[in-house]
Amino acid sequence: MSLFKFSPSTFSIGACWFLTSVVFYTLNIAQLAPLFFSDEAQVALVGNDGSFFGADTVEIADAMRALTVNGDMRKHPLFSIVTAPMVDAVGWLFRIDENRSVIVTLGLISAGNVTFAWWILSQFAVSKTLGLALSVMYGLMFSNLTFFSIPETYSLSGLAVEAYVCLLLALGNKRTGRSAVLLGTAAGFAGLLNPPLLSLSLVGIVYGWNWGREKEALRYGILTIVVACLVFCLPYALVYGRSILGFSRDYANHYASLSNLLEVEKVASVAVSFFLFSVVSPVVSLAGNISLPQLLGYVNNPIAAATLIFYLVIGVVAIGQAIRCSDALVLPIAIWVLTMLAFYVFFNPREGFLYSSQVLFPLTMLAARGLAKIPLADHYKAALVAILSVLLGLNNLPVLYGQAM
Hints:
Number of helices: 19
Number of strands: 0
Strand content: under 5%
Shape: globular
Distance between the termini: 47 Å
């Protein structure tokens, strides 16, 4: 399979889906723009923490206007380096002011997420039609809908996760020095967008592990990790020097605690954020954060309850089918998702919802591979996913639009 050969139908579907997504997300972002371009407006909207579910939208929007590696960008050093030139280019191309250029740039990145998701799904899991239905569903998941509609670093991190999964599947189950270098490099760059994504190395290592040739697999794993760490650490050393060690220590002391891993409520809060809140909103308006008490929102809202049940049925059946058929992605994705969950329990579990979007594409890919193995005509499977997408839209969109209007 060539990843760079596009049939006319593939190009047409992809172009239409991208343009539709640009319009959709740009409208969302424009609707919310007065809120996230002003600290005062955010405080009025969600309280004194001044954030959308923990997102530092004003600071991130500023980082898009002018290239910087300071402040919050020390955790995401590639974000401003990538987005600031994009904002300048969009402003020059369309002759629009800086704020409008930020909005359009965010719309392009968000559209890139769902379009790239469709392309990967249709290349490696399902038909183009079912892949399109799944990518619509993916874009309407509450965590994605939220963070694709505001200035947030996780929209670009999502593209890095998708690129890693795409590269992994394109390389196949190969344990060569070349594949180790490529996957290590991809994980390293993902880490420069968000450090926990360095753990993507685990996906490639487990996916390529050969239980009959452990020594060869171990060498492959070590090379992957070494390359990932070099790609990740060298830019930090060159840009920040030793100061990054003090920043990291202070940051960890402020947010992280090993004792969190022993608290059932915090583990449950992050798990619920990752697997329930990230897909179906339990709240009816924007908030500072979502925690376990908001589970009652599903009981009080019939649409939320119906959406949650429909999502759980499709998700359990699809991923269960992937497990039953021993899909090669099951173990690596499960290990990586659990690793991410444990990390965010250890590190700032209060904002588990903010971090949840990072695991959604790998889980969607796994569900798609499971759906492909279910003996049912594709148009029926696409219809079921489309119904779920409609329910997600009915439940999740009013959260963004209801309070901003």
